[in-house]
Specification:
449 residues, globular, two-stranded antiparallel sheet, alpha/beta, binds flavin mononucleotide, TIM Barrel, binds iron/sulfur cluster
Length: 449
């Protein structure tokens, strides 16, 4: 039986449980509002006032043509007011057919004003980024892949040719130039969560210019960054990447997650070949490439929300298409924190933002402070916690402590809703979403699951 975090009500109970699990997680007993989390940090010539980063959190709620809607603006305003020094804006497609859903944002020339007004919802001294994406095998309605996968069914998906990737790289550069025009400080050339550029990182068997060795598998990134440096030299470039991956998981006979295949698995970037182990040699080499490209801001994450959500967003309650956690979710949190710490130690000049902290709930500030204080990451990314409790950073930084009733309890409704064609949002805790009709549909859905 996995204990809920809320039941680990003292620091001793929390650390004793970590010991029982046999995992190491840095944690400070006392959080100092003026301590490590409040210390400014210089990134690429700009100063971030504190160590909290609002992670990209899309809502499946843009307009049909890809502009920000009122729901998007509401989310950005709330996140902006929450006090994180960096706001890493959500996944935004570089072209319409690269969207993961029909309501994902798209950066097109005629939308620059809309994106400029989105940026203006954040404070001028907040560092604002936009995550550029092509959803690859998750693109709707027409999935496109970097290579054929041995386990994921994709026989009917077209494989991008090298020439098509050349064209796509130019579209990334166009989108980056538009983001600069809209007033964003950086763009993220997204390489995570099973989307196209993450898939390119594991395109070991792909022939041609964009596969094979690490140089081939990072050619796309290098082409895009070179293009941005020429077209929008003032724009900073960041990268969010899945530092390791596992074999796809599925629901086992007792609903617990299990690997879909037990054979050796060579398609996991940052994997050790077993399908469920980590080897950071390539991710470290990838960070060398990022440093050579002058990239000073990197966000780490893991796996994919579609094929192995427990390593990507550790949760107590699975989304409707997920499975019961095959491990205590704290193991997943610790796995990401340990891997990030190793990458940060080997790349001290890069500002690395860690992810996967929301599951820590009450203990998030304690772990976050210890991680920053011991150099395990430069900054702490907050995903689901920002949806549930957008003022979390300012409550911690202004010494108010956390409001237990506002904490994200990893109910996964923000994932279940979009998986069933609804907009995302924190249905259990945000009164605005609680009152929407979708909430009733979600309750029904969960009853029948
Ligand atoms: C509803 C939802 C939307 C998300 N949208 C994005 C996104 O647009 N881009 C991205 O890189 N990650 C996205 N993520 C992943 C989060 O940024 C984050 O990595 C993940 O939730 C784990 O961090 P946490 O434990 O703080 O939630 C999303 C996650 C959720 C639950
Ligand atoms: S729906 Fe709310 S409480 Fe549930 S995981 Fe998402 S942010 Fe957390």
């Amino acid at each position: 039986m996995i204990p809920k975090i809320a039941s680990l009500s003292t620091f001793e109970a929390f650390t004793t449980h970590l010991e029982r699990l046999g995992i190491e997680l840095p944690a400070d007993e006392h959080v100092d509002a003026a301590g490590a989390l409040a210390s400014p940090i210089e990134i690429d010539g700009r100063v971030a006032a504190n160590r909290f980063v609002a992670l990209p959190m899309e809502g499946w709620d843009g307009t049909d043509d890809g502009r920000p809607s009122d729901l998007v603006r509401r989310r950005w305003s709330r996140i902006g007011a929450g006090g994180a020094s960096v706001v890493w804006g959500e996944a935004t497609a570089v072209r319409s057919d690269g969207r993961a859903n029909a309501n994902q944002l798209v950066l097109r020339p005629e939308f620059v004003e809309d994106f400029a007004s989105l940026r203006s919802l954040l404070a001028p001294d907040q560092i604002a980024g936009l995550q550029l994406t092509h959803s690859g095998r998750y693109a709707k309605p027409t999935p496109r892949v970097a290579y054929r996968h041995p386990i994921l069914a994709d026989d009917d998906h077209a494989v991008f040719t090298d020439d098509e990737l050349d064209e796509l790289a130019a579209q990334y550069v166009d989108a980056a130039a538009l983001a600069a025009e809209a007033g964003f400080d950086f763009v993220d050339v997204k390489h995570c969560h099973g989307y196209l550029l993450h898939e390119l990182l594991s395109a070991y068997d792909r022939r041609g210019r964009y596969g094979g060795d690490l140089s081939g598998r990072t050619r796309f990134l290098r082409t895009v960054v070179d293009g941005i440096r020429t077209r929008a030299p003032e724009l900073r470039v960041a990268v969010r990447f899945s530092m390791f991956d596992f074999v796809p998981f599925r629901k086992g006979p007792d609903e617990t997650g299990e690997p879909r295949d037990s054979a050796p698995y060579r398609h996991a970037f940052g994997g050790d070949g077993s399908g469920t182990g980590v080897d950071l040699s390539e991710p470290n080499a990838f960070l060398d490439v990022l440093e050579e490209l002058g990239i000073e801001l990197v966000c780490t994450t893991a796996g994919s929300p579609y094929t192995n959500p427990h390593i990507q967003r550790p949760a107590y309650f699975p989304p409707s298409d997920g499975y019961l956690p095959p491990e205590d979710p704290l193991v997943g949190v610790a796995r990401q924190i340990a891997a990030t710490a190793e990458l940060q130690r080997r790349h001290p000049k890069v500002a690395i933002v860690g992810s996967g902290y929301s599951y820590l709930q009450e203990w998030l500030p304690h772990v976050a402070q210890a991680v920053v204080r011991t150099g395990g990451a430069s900054m702490i990314g907050l995903g689901r916690m920002m949806l549930a409790y957008p003022s979390f950073p300012s409550d911690v930084l202004e010494g108010r402590g956390t409001n237990r009733r506002a904490l994200c309890r990893t109910f996964s409704d923000c994932t279940t809703a979009p998986r069933n064609g609804m907009i995302s949002g924190c249905y259990p805790l945000d009164p605005f979403y609680k009152e929407r009709d979708e909430r009733k549909r979600l309750v029904q859905l969960k009853k029948h699951n």
